[in-house]
Amino acid sequence: MRPFSVIVAFDSQYGIGKNGQLPWVLPMDLKNFKEITSTVTDPSKKNAVIMGRKTWESLPPKFRPLPGRVNLVLSKEGKLKVPSGVICADSLENALNQLSTPNIENIFVIGGAQIYAEVINHHLCQRLYVTHVQGNYDCDAFFPPISKDFFLISASEQFEDAGFSFQFCMYLRN
Questions:
Q1: CATH code of the domain occupying 43-110+118-158
Q2: 3-class DSSP assignment, residue 30
Q3: Which of 7, 10, 35, 71 could disulfide-pair with 129, CB 3.0 to 4.6 Å?
Q4: Would you say 37 and 72 are in contact if contact means Cβ atoms under 8 Å apart?
Q5: 45/132 Cα distance (integer angstroms)
Q6: Which residues of 76-144 form beta strands (DSSP E)?
């Protein structure tokens, strides 16, 4: 099994979602997400994204599966109906084993709250890509507080987009 990264946007209270949706629409953040999760150094390889069933279902159907990436959906429920080419797994270990192939360059966990809570303390979780959205958006789904095991290695300038103020940060595990 290989190391993986987490990518997330959260508000000042670690809120990531409300009523099964993102509480904001940030075109710059969506572009950043696509760039980070799609970019490979070896053109013969692809990156993989791991998401929970609820995150999968929250994606607009026209964006499912996320293009240019191997999509893996984690679900403890039996047979999930997904398009061909989308991988299903019933545990993180099973998912990481399935993605430990030479054609995968990087693995990104993209949500949601249940999955983040499970992976954040996993020893193979090495990097966090965080969009810090200023303010409190009355969320009902949350990211776990970032442990002292991670330290900030880069922070962008403060951006404004669609009425929201935010910053891109990267954290590395000690």
A1: 3.40.430.10
A2: helix
A3: 7
A4: no
A5: 30
A6: 87-89, 104-109, 125-133, 141-142
Between vectors from CA 9 to CA 51 and to CA 2, what angle results, nearest 5°?
Answer: 45
d(CA 51, CA 47): 13
Per-residue pLDDT 10s for the chain (174 aa) are: 899 999 999 999 999 999 999 999 999 999 999 999 999 999 999 999 999 999 999 998 998 999 999 999 999 876 788 888 999 999 999 999 999 999 999 999 999 999 999 999 999 999 999 999 999 999 999 999 999 999 999 999 999 998 999 999 999 999
Domain ranges of the chain: 43-110+118-158
